[in-house]
Write a structure and sequence with these properties.
This protein has helices spanning about 10-20, 45, 55, 60-65, 125-145, 150-155, 165-180, 210-225, 315-330, 365-380, 385-400, and strands at about 5-10, 25-30, 35-40, 55-60, 70-75, 75-80, 85-90, 95, 100, 105-110, 155-160, 195-200, 225-230, 235-240, 240-245, 250, 255, 260, 280, 285, 290-295, 300, 305, 305-310, 345-350, 355-360, 360-365. By secondary structure, the protein is of the alpha/beta class. Strand 20 and strand 21 form a beta hairpin. Helix 1 packs parallel to helix 9 and helix 5 packs antiparallel against helix 6 (about 150-155).
Length: about 425
């Protein structure tokens, strides 16, 4: 009888783990609360009307349709019974396993101020991206309606909190949307007058990059018209703006890119966690005392050469594949191998022809980094159709500054 492998989560870690087991003598069940895999590095482009949601998402069933040993379930996991080797589902069902890979990912962390979430949405899912897009586009529409100059200024002020890659990319994309894509579309306002403020609590933006690249990135954003403010901690957020340790910023649209927290599913495992809720795993990514259970991706706290492995897509992919290889080794009664992250570089795009990148020993900025960013993201995007569509949309946007996904989707409670 074939061993049963259950994978919780259809993100990069879970999906690559499942695909790595396609020729293994096991039965694979991958369970996720959504039916699709999302290419998270491009979520900010959905949030700023550059791409449609379907351009960066792919149904998990479609991705694994030719993998005959894989079953996909749309379900919400509520708990894991390590001793009973079972996964509990919200529907009341259970999944029994011989091997388990937990790739539940991470969500937003508001550092104990969960009430801020209402006023400052984060960006982790397609639903988040659509909500942010709605807020950004509505701000311009409402400014067009406003007669009071002060209210127009308030509506045309956008604040992004957190200057990591997501925050920097969001700020740059909003600036390009306002200065170029919307430039000729309004009659009573000038979209290019929008104020975009990027706030960072640390002493520099993109702190995971070398200081020289951080400086270049800040200059590139400032050329786009983004106001970069470092060394300012957020002390309060409400429906009218943001309070920082320096002053008050009145803004109708506030976006959160300042912190993440691991999935609460990690806490249900009953093993030690780090300060952000990630599971402290063994060197081979298994749980202490449970070699049949692996934790991968953003939920795993892994240290290498004295530094934490970053919570980025390439790391999750590598962890997923490694966990699957160790399952195959265990089936062959071979010892598991420790995980070793291979850092092939980091990239962040800041706007048209603007980006920074570290690739091996190279440090790139400007157009060369931007071209490298385009190539890498097209290669790793899931689905041939998505690659073609995204490449076309980027080419069109480069030539025309256009944004083709500018529909505003109202919530039921709104007019």
């Amino acid at each position: 009888m074939r061993s049963q492998v259950v994978i919780v989560g259809g993100g990069f870690g879970g999906l690559y783990a499942a695909k790595a087991l396609r020729r293994a003598p096991v039965r694979v069940t991958i369970v996720d609360r959504t039916n699709h895999h999302v290419f998270q590095p491009l979520l900010y482009q959905v949030a700023t009307a550059g791409l449609s949601a379907i351009d960066i998402g792919e149904p998990i069933r479609r991705v694994l349709r030719r993998q005959v040993n894989a079953t996909v379930l749309l379900a919400d996991v509520t708990g894991i019974d390590l001793d009973g080797h079972r996964v509990d589902l919200a529907s009341g069902g259970i999944l029994e396993y011989d091997y388990l890979i937990v790739a539940a990912g991470a969500g937003h962390s508001y550092f104990g101020h969960d009430d801020w979430a209402e006023h400052a949405p984060g960006l982790k899912t397609i639903e988040d991206a659509l909500e942010i897009r709605r807020r950004i586009l509505l701000a311009f529409e409402r400014a067009e309606l406003a007669d009071d100059p002060a209210e127009r200024t308030h509506l045309l002020t956008f604040v992004v909190l957190g200057a990591g890659p997501t925050g920097a990319e969001l700020a740059g994309a909003i600036a390009e949307l306002a200065r170029h894509a919307l430039r000729a579309d309004f009659r009573r306002i000038t979209p290019g007058d929008a104020r975009i403020v990027l706030v960072e609590g640390g002493d520099r933006m993109l702190s995971s990059y070398p200081a020289s690249l951080s400086t270049k990135a800040q200059r590139q954003l400032e050329r786009l018209g983004v106001e970069v403010r470092t060394g300012e901690m957020v002390t309060g957020i409400d429906g009218r703006g943001v309070d920082t340790s320096a002053d008050r910023i009145e803004a109708a649209t506030v976006l959160w890119a300042a912190g993440v927290a691991a999935s609460p599913l990690g806490a249900s495992l009953g093993t030690p966690l780090d300060a952000t809720g990630r599971v402290l795993v063994e060197p081979d990514l298994t749980l202490p005392g449970h070699p049949e259970v692996s934790v991968v991706g953003d939920l795993a706290a892994v240290t290498q050469d004295g530094a934490p492995v970053p919570g980025v897509a390439p790391a999750a992919m590598q962890m997923g594949r490694h966990a699957s290889r160790n399952i195959e080794r265990a089936l062959d009664e071979l010892p598991t191998e420790p995980f070793r992250y291979v850092d092939r570089g980091s990239m962040a795009t800041l706007g048209r022809s603007s980006a920074i990148a570290t690739i091996g020993g190279l440090r790139l900025s400007g157009f060369p980094a931007w071209a490298a960013w385009l190539l890498v993201h097209i290669v790793f995007l899931i689905g041939f159709r998505n690659r073609i569509v995204v490449l076309f949309e980027w080419a069109k946007a480069y030539l025309t500054y256009g944004r083709s996904a500018r529909l505003i989707l109202f919530r039921e409670s709104e007019d």
